[in-house]
Amino acid sequence: MTTMTHTARRAALSDLTADLDRAVRGHASDATTAEAVSRALAPYLGAEGLLTDEQRLGDPDRYVGAYTRVGGRIEISAADGLRLRYVPEGPIAASFGGYEFDLTPVSDRLFVGRVSDTGLWSPVVFEGDYIHMGVRAYRKA
Question: Structural domain tally of the chain?
Answer without folding.
Answer: 1
